[in-house]
Structures are given as C-alpha cells and as structure tokens.
Design goal:
The complex is a heterodimer of chains A (369) and B (269). Chain A is α+β, with helices and mostly antiparallel strands and 369 residues long. Helix content of chain A is 21%, strand content 36%. The chains are: A alpha+beta (369), B mainly alpha (269). At the A-B interface, β6 of A face α7 and α8 of B.
C-alpha cells in the first residue's frame, strides 16, 4: 500500500461541532473536521454511523440541528442545495430514465448561459472524460450499471463543482468492475483536481482511494488520518477492528518510560512500546495490544531471526492462492492468532496441527487503552 | 393436468357470462324489430339513423361529455396533489385525512347522492351540470389518488434530489422530472375518472336537475318499448368508443414504459 502524496491545499469544507437530531435520535454528535481543497476524502463506517447524513449536510439535503458547515469559507446555513457549489453522485445513480445520455449529462447546463453549440461541446467533452464517447444519443435506461455510474459522474462534473460528493457509488457494481472504477475515479480526481468526498462502508475501498479517511462510529469521528496511519496506528480497538484484521491480546501497562511504555502482554512477555505505537494515549493499568496478521512470520526449518520467537500449533489454514492465512494457537495464549504469509517458492503450505515457530517484533504492536 | 382443465372450463364460463350480453348489444342494434328476442327479424340500420334525429339525446350526450371531461381533469389534478403530498411529506393527521379523502370509495353512492342533494337544496343551490361535476369529483378523486399514489411511490426519491442538486428549483424539478415519469399514472387516472363519470347514474340522477346526463336519459327511455332498439344502437356505439379509448390509453402507457425502461406492472389491461 503506497501512500499518495497529500496535497496540503487550503480548507475546502469545515465542520464546526455539527449536531443532527432526527426526533430523539442523535445522528451526528458533534462533528468537527476540515477537508482540504483537492483532497480525495472518505467517510468510512458501518451502516447507521451517520456518514451518509454528514455527506447530505454538505449537499444541503439535510439541515443540521446546530453547528456550522462552511464550504470554501462560506457558511452554508442559508444556502439551499440547488445553490451550493457541490454536486452529488447518488448511490442509485439517479439517472433520469426518460432522457437520453446527453440530456442527462447536460441537465445541469439548462440554467447556465451559453450557446447551444457550446453546451453540446461541453457534454461531448464530459462524456469523453468518463469514457462514454458516442453514447450521447442512447436512452439512459438502456445502459449497464457501470455506464450509468459514468453518466452520473459526467453529469455531476460538467458543472465544475468545488466539491464532488459520492454516496457509495460503487456498491452496486460487481467486484471486477468496482476495482476498475476505483482506479478510474482516482485518475479522474487527479485530472480534474476537484475535492472528492466519498461515503463508503468498504474499508478496502477507502484505503485504496483516499488521501485521508474519517472513520465514523455512532455519529462521531473516531479517527481522521491518512490510510497508512489509520491502518498501522489505529487509535481505538473499534477502528482497528473495522479496518483490516487485527489480533488483540490482553496486556498490562507496567510502567511509563521516557520512550513510551513497558507492557506485559499475555503469552508474549514484557514488551517495550514507543509513544508512536500508542496513538490512543493509554494511561496505565489494564490495556490490550493489537497486531496485524502480516506482522507475524512463520519460521521454516533452519530459518533464524533477530526478532522474538514464539511457538505454537497451526489450528486452521485458509488458502487464497497468493496468500495463506493461518490461525496459530501460540503457547500460553488461549485464543489463536491469525497470521498471513505470501506463498513464495520454498514456503510450503503448512498442515493443520503442525508445530511451528512464529517470529514477531514488539515494534509492530499497537497499544490500546 | 386435471386441475388445468377445470380451471379452463371455469375461465370460459366466466368470460361468456361477462361478455355475452355485450355481444347481444350489436345483434339487436341491427335487428329489424322492436321486441328484444330471438329469432332475429332481419338487418336494419334504422335505429342508428334514429339516434341522429333525437335532440334530447344529443343534449344528454353533450352534458355527459362536459361533465366527464371536467371531472377527469379536476379529480386527476386533485389526485396529483394528494398523492404527491401523501407519498412525499409527513404532516399531522396524515392518516385520518387520507382516510377521509378515500372514504367515498366505500360509501354507498346513494347515501352520498342523497346527502349531497339535501345539502345543496339547503344551501339553495340550483341543480345543474355543475352540481353533478362536484358530486362526481367527490367519487372519482379517491380512484385517481389510488392510481397516482402507486405512480408516485415507484419514483426514486434521489431523482428529485439529483435535479435539485443540479440547480433546478422544486417547481422545475416537478415539471422536468416528476411529471414526465408519473405521466402514465396521470393518463390512467384521467381515463378511469372519465369512464366512471360518464356512466355514473345515481349521483347524476339526483343532482342533474333538468339537465339529464346520458345514463339518466337512457334510463328514462326504457319506459318506451319502441326506444329499446335505439338504446341498443347507442350502446353499441359506446362499447366501440370505450374499446378505442382504452386501446389509445394502453398504447401511450406502453410507449411511456418503453421510453423510461420501467418494468411493466400490468397497468390497466
């Protein structure tokens, strides 16, 4: 996973303590965040976490109960959706079924000044941009899912909005198509330089596409970081659990040192953990540590390591072709830990109940409160 | 397939029962005799000719058409408002309000007609075409709402939001997006309210005053045996017109579906 260079643009969107109630239901609980201009930003979380509601407050489809939403420095409280510098790609694409592709794409130009020829040219350009050159005269309802998606994109981008809002735009596509569109969306975003805000429940999608991600639970932002930090240094167990796979072991903070913490981890012994490995700022006492499957390595016959080594028994083997996942029950730990190995030549897939040595490094641990 | 044969016979009997009387209409309309009985007496077109020379009938047809056209437009318009409001917005007492609007659907028409008559007479309103229109709108609007509600419900909410998001006002969104997409429903509503109004008898009988509608006129003519074949001729024309009208409406409905790519949910026919 390579991190994209983050563009330190000026602030495009700012939330200041945004609250939203639906009757008694508290949907947004004090959102404060900034989204930079030109950024590919994702709102990630399980369904019902408020991510779509937050997106719709930017678009102007939801009013907020209190707080402030600023777009490009302007307070949006009195600006209705049809006058905001944002455009949206809807989850259902919302293609107008009674219009042609060109009429759909050019819909937003109806109210703009300019000659008919000029508008037709812009529609052609927009269609070309999303790879639908020559589709203008087709009936919109006859398109496939991926093509509808592109029409929706072209229709939203033709107005050159300051912010493009994408509400789970890829969830209706099959896996292969989704992966293609992810790459295309990233390219498109770099090409047009518009701020993209994506709502998704798919952590992989968010990691692949975003410059920065806000992980949301129950109406609050749990962590806002770039993908790598989010993956390697999650602040809470909840975030760690939602993004990728993480093994958790109970631990006890024995002492706070100059560099960080001395931690007694169940089954692994005393580990020195740096400040950076504990982004959740634990205080001491009972805690837990987490580690990703790829930070554990099986040691084959004759291999040595400078890392620490534990022994255990293979309990489960899941073969993925390029990778194999093992659940290994390490000696002294009750629950098996999951680890992943790339299937390289000279690395036979182990059988269940094989005894094996596993190497790991305290530097790969994350300490949670 | 024993059960299959049983159902087939049932379907045949059902269809014969439903349509045999309608087949009899043209038979006696062209029959050269006043008595409606077999054997047929010979071919004639004199009953159709008699239709052309009957000023009270022409008045009744004119009244009925004025009423049916006004009623279909009025009740469909009211239906659009009500269906839109009930599918899109939440407001206090929505349930009871919609229930009250839909009530004439199940009320006995004779009760509606008598109460309307009492109220109108009490208010000192003179009975004419206008009072019939009012009565018919009351009865037709629930049908229009029922048809239009399903049309509005099948509309994806994000289509409106998309149009609004692209800079349109709520009004232009309605005109450019919502209206074209519910048009098949509107055509159906126009058609069904037109049909209901055209052959409605009870309310028209009570509220028409001296301006008889077609059903009221037909009923009054049955007192005279010599008028019966003429009524048969009139009925034949009406059946043909109904079939033509329904075919046209179905044509437009199917074309609308094909255009928008929506799934055919059966519609009218």
């Amino acid at each position: 996973m390579t991190e994209k260079p983050t563009m330190p643009g000026p602030t495009m969107i700012e939330f200041r303590d945004v609250q939203k109630y639906y009757g008694d239901y508290h949907a947004l609980r004090g959102i404060t965040a900034e989204i930079r201009a030109g950024e590919f930003f994702s709102l990630l979380g399980p369904s019902g976490c408020g991510k779509t509601t937050l997106l719709r407050t930017i678009a102007g489809f939801e009013s907020i109960s209190s707080g402030v939403v600023l777009i490009d420095g302007k307070d949006m409280a009195q600006v209705p959706a049809n006058q905001r510098p944002t455009n949206m790609v809807f989850q259902s694409y919302a293609i107008f079924p009674h219009l042609t592709v060109a009429e759909n794409v050019g819909f937003g130009l109806r109210r703009e000044a300019g000659s008919r020829e000029d508008k037709a040219r812009r529609v052609t350009e927009a269609l070309e941009m999303v790879g639908l050159k020559g589709y203008g005269a087709r009936a919109a309802h006859a398109l496939s899912g991926g093509q509808r998606q592109r029409v929706a994109l072209a229709r939203a981008l033709i107005l050159k909005p300051k912010v493009l809002l994408l509400d789970e735009p890829l969830s209706a596509l099959d896996k292969k198509m989704r992966e293609n569109m992810q790459v295309e969306l990233i390219k498109l975003q770099r090409q047009v330089g518009i701020t993209f805000i994506l709502v998704t429940h798919d952590q992989e999608e968010a990691l692949v596409m975003s410059d920065r991600i806000a992980v949301m639970f129950e109406g609050q932002i749990a962590q806002l970081d770039d993908p790598e930090t989010l993956y390697r240094r999650p602040k809470t167990r909840q975030v760690a659990d939602f993004i990728g796979t993480m093994n958790f072991l109970p631990a006890e903070v024995a002492a706070q040192t100059n560099e960080g913490y001395s931690v007694d981890v169940a089954g692994l012994g005393r580990c020195e953990i740096t400040e950076a490995q504990a982004p959740g700022a634990p205080t001491g006492g009972p805690a837990s540590v987490g580690f990703r499957p790829e930070t554990l390595t099986i040691l084959y016959e004759g291999q040595t390591t400078s890392d620490r080594v534990s022994e255990g028994t293979v309990e489960e083997v899941v073969y993925y072709g390029d990778m194999t996942y093992y659940d290994v029950k390490l000696d002294g730990i009750d629950t098996p830990v999951r680890l992943s190995m790339r299937n390289l030549p000279g690395r036979p897939v182990l059988d269940i109940r094989t005894r094996t040595r596993v190497s790991w490094s305290p530097g790969a641990l994350v300490l949670f409160r | 397939m024993k059960g299959g044969t049983g159902f087939r016979i049932y379907a045949m009997v059902y269809l014969v029962f439903l349509y045999a009387p309608i087949v009899l209409l043209p038979m006696f309309a062209f029959n050269n005799g006043i008595i409606i009985a077999f054997p047929l007496q010979g071919f004639t077109t004199q009953w159709f000719a008699a239709l052309l020379d009957d000023p009270p009938l022409h008045d009744a047809v004119r009244n009925s058409l004025i009423i049916a056209v006004s009623v279909s437009i009025l009740s469909t318009t009211l239906g659009v408002f009500a269906a839109r409001a009930s599918t899109r917005f939440n407001f206090p007492f929505k349930g009871p309000l919609m229930g009250l609007i839909m009530l004439p659907l199940v009320l006995p028409e004779i009760i509606v007609a008598v109460s309307l008559l009492v109220v109108l007479l009490g208010l000192g309103v003179s009975l004419n075409i206008l009072t019939v229109i009012l009565g018919h709108v009351l009865v037709c609007t629930p049908f229009c709402i029922a048809i239009l509600t399903s049309a509005f419900q099948s509309l994806d909410r994000s289509l409106e939001e998309a149009a609004y998001d692209l800079g349109e006002t709520p009004l232009s969104t309605f005109r450019l997006i919502i209206l074209p997409l519910v048009m098949p429903g509107i055509v159906s509503a126009l058609l069904i309210s037109f049909t209901i109004s055209l052959d409605e008898f009870i309310i028209a009988f009570f509220l028409a005053g001296t301006q008889a509608t077609l059903p009221v006129y037909i009923f009054s003519q049955f007192r005279f045996p010599q008028a019966v074949p003429v009524i048969m001729a009139l009925g034949t024309i009406l059946v043909c017109l109904s079939i033509l009208l329904l075919s046209i409406a179905e044509f437009f409905r199917r074309r609308g579906l094909a255009r928008s790519g929506a799934k055919d949910t059966g519609g009218f026919l």
